[in-house]
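task queued by scheduler; priority normal; single chain, no ligands, no partner chains; default sampling; output format set to structure tokens
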Amino acid sequence: MTAFLDRRAFLVSASAVPLLALPSCNTLGDLGGGFGLADAIRRLLTLSSQRAFARLLAPDGFFQDELARISLPQQLGGSGATSILSALLRTGPVRDRLLRQVNRAAEDAADAAAPVVYDSIRSLSLADAVSIVRGGPRAATSILRDAVGGAVVSRLLPDVGSALRLFDSAIVNEALRAATGINFAGLADDVSRKTGDAIFRAIGREEAAIRANPRETGDPLLIGVFGVLG
């Protein structure tokens, strides 16, 4: 448990991903120090990701966050129960327990996806950095998601599956399938996809906040670029 918590703290700390000065063909006037717009975007995404993961990896981070909370599959949360078992699965107390379980699964799995996100930021192709800087409040996150969204979901799936192992028994699996039309594999896939969506929504929220007030970061590069062009 201690090792797991230490790893989680490392992933969300500012020192987890150095903000490197990388050569860029999209330079901006007198930024100096070899920095350019592509470097500013990578800094923006790194800081946005660090802040997003810090919030999501806090205890009940997904469940307490309306933007990131993982919903149950429709079959587990809908109406029109057709059997005693399906009716039980849809009762308030049971549904609340299931909802908390899938959100804890998302929380447990999210730290495994963080390195995928950070590594992708460092190698992200930013051919038109100017349009990203001048784009909408979540323009950089959109580019990141297009580049790495599938890899994030793939990395989440094994850890989500492990966290949901409580449901993975022949009896429970068959009961879920008979009552709702889904099985354990379907539940794990659903939670993984929703967790990936939630991670990028959280990153986008942080990006928008930084763009709206770059001075709050105390980062001269972000202030210089997004304070002028954002």
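post-processing summary
- The chain has ten helices and no strands.
- The chain has one domain: 30-226.
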